[in-house]
């Protein structure tokens, strides 16, 4: 059984012009021709076309494909082995590429556009995205969340390092304040709570006093956020929550 050039083009997903070109350069010469000179392709021709398209998909030039297929020392099993090796290598490359793309997508989604090396340099062994899912669940549809994502997506490694330095400085001073027995309603504690609110406004979104109070409650009620502040000093999450509440009350 043989097939016309149009039928083969439909089977293989190539153009008739491509098949004509393959014939002209001797890469795929149809096994038959009609009395009128029309090309007719048999099963062996289709097998060869399949081989050609496979190698072309892998990036081989037409000349290289011709050399591979016309190698007198190669048999069909040799082609299959070669194809298996090439496919395996390509799959490994594609898997690595897919992993890299997934990482980039996740980083962009979370607003942390850093390489793994830069993340480690900035955050150490802390996961900067540990609270991202919870934050998105709580505020994903809010203007504040959208603004924080827009801003964070533009930050460089140096921006994140500067932000981390501010957080570290604030944490050290808050721990010292608690060690000295400052109550949450004390002036110094409320000033530190105000600094906390302004830090959020500077780096992420305009944080109102009402919104800040909501954050304070979350720092206590959600274990993932509470752990961050408790790692600075036990009881700091509750102390900060109360300082945030007192600060909001004196300013509103």
Automatic annotation (TrEMBL):
Entry keyword Ribonucleoprotein: no
Record-linked Gene3D superfamilies: 1.10.1660.10, Antibiotic binding domain of TipA-like multidrug resistance regulators
Keyword Transcription in record: yes
Keyword field: Activator, Coiled coil, DNA-binding, Transcription, Transcription regulation
Family matches, as Pfam families: MerR_1, TipAS
Coiled-coil regions, chain positions: 77-104
Domain of life: Bacteria
Ranges for domain HTH merR-type: 1-71
Protein name from the UniProt record: MerR family transcriptional regulator
Organism: Streptomyces chiangmaiensis
